[in-house]
């Protein structure tokens, strides 16, 4: 599919992969040193939100940079999962901003 819709009209022509890549991507991280990891990542410019499950939702930094930052400071990581936007997420986000 190569069409982006918003409020019933075409707003751009693009590949699905490109459309979802343009959206906010986040990484779910679980660590026993949540506070320390939060300080490190926010200090590097990421946005970090605590989740009810005990993990962290990180935006503004990819999984590789998160892992490298944690390893450099000897912060253990128990889970590191990129969350990539779906086509439905892309549609909902673009239709709300148009």
Would you write up a description of this structure?
- A hairpin with a 2-residue loop joins strand 1 (3-6) and strand 2.
- Helices cover 39% and strands 28% of the residues.
- The strands form 2 sheets. A 4-stranded antiparallel beta sheet has the order 4-5-3-6, covered by helices on one side. Strands 1-2 form a two-stranded antiparallel ribbon.
- With 98 residues, the chain is an alpha+beta fold.
- It is built from 4 helices and 6 strands; from the N terminus they run ββαβαββαβα.
Tell me briefly what this model is.
The chain is of the alpha+beta class. The protein has helices at residues 16-22, 34-43, 63-72, 87-97; strands spanning 3-6, 9-13, 26-30, 47-50, 56-59, 79-83.
Question: Which properties best describe this structure?
Answer:
39% helix; four-stranded antiparallel sheet; two-stranded antiparallel sheet; elongated; 4 helices; alpha+beta; Alpha-Beta Plaits; 98 residues; single chain
The string of secondary-structure elements, in order, is EEHEHEEHEH
Q: What's the gyration radius in Å?
A: 16 Å
Which overall shape is indicated by the principal axes computed on the Cα atoms? elongated
Share of β-strand residues? 25-35%
CATH architecture, by name, is 2-Layer Sandwich
The largest β sheet comes out as: 4 strands, antiparallel
Structural class: alpha+beta
Distance between the first and last residues' Cα: 19 Å
Helical segment count? 4
Find the count of extended strands (DSSP E, 2+ residues).
6
- Record the strand order, biggest sheet: 4-5-3-6
């Amino acid at each position: 599919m190569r069409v982006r819709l918003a409020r019933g009209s075409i707003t751009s022509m693009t590949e699905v992969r490109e459309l979802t890549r343009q959206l906010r991507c986040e990484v779910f991280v679980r660590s026993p040193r949540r506070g320390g990891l939060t300080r490190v990542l926010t200090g590097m410019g990421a946005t970090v939100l605590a989740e009810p499950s005990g993990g962290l939702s990180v935006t503004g930094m990819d999984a590789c940079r998160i892992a490298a930052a944690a390893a450099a400071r000897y912060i253990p990581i128990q889970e590191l999962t990129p969350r990539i936007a779906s086509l439905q997420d892309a549609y909902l986000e673009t239709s709300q901003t148009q």
